[in-house]
């Protein structure tokens, strides 16, 4: 009976070990599935994190571009803000130039007094400081981007063909932007 009891115990122990082994294998399989799920979740989290980083970098770059663009627009606005005022002053400046030319003509009795000369110089220097520059046209080659041809006349010499013979109205630039084209007479 002792033998049967030992055999019975060993069979039970073997079955218990087999059951235990089966439970361990089941736990290992489940743990493997869980680790695969964890790896999948980690890779999903990692790709989601990378995607969020990319979105952040793109958003930051877009914001920097926005700041640069608005700064440039603001600078352009500041540079051309006085354009309307300058355009309104140009006819007065033209009249001043004509008066000066008339006073310099020796056949006239008109004179440009010293005070008026000082005002003339001060006006020109102030406008130049604000970015207004008169374009030199007479004697230059005609350029349709800078000049407006009012008429063409026969050139006095062969060398003056295609050149500007006379400037009727000066052209002006404000901060390197043309605000008025020069009105000229071109030799042909």
Short description:
The chain has about 190 residues and is of the alpha+beta class. Helices cover about 60% and strands about 15% of the residues. Strands 1-4-5 form a 3-stranded antiparallel β-sheet. It has a 3-stranded mixed β-sheet with strand order 2-6-3, with no helix packed on it.
**Count of all domains:** 2
Main sheet record? 3 strands, antiparallel
List low-pLDDT spans.
none
Characterize the overall form: rod-shaped
Elements, N to C (H/E): HHHEEEEEE
The CATH architecture name of the largest domain reads Roll
Rg, Å, rounded: 45 Å
Instruction: Please state the average pLDDT score.
Output: 82
| Strand neighbour order, sheet with most strands | 1-4-5
The CATH superfamily of the largest domain turns out to be: Head domain of nucleotide exchange factor GrpE
At the third CATH level, what is the topology name of the largest domain? Nucleotide Exchange Factor Grpe, Chain A, domain 2
* Name of the top-level CATH class of the largest domain: Mainly Beta
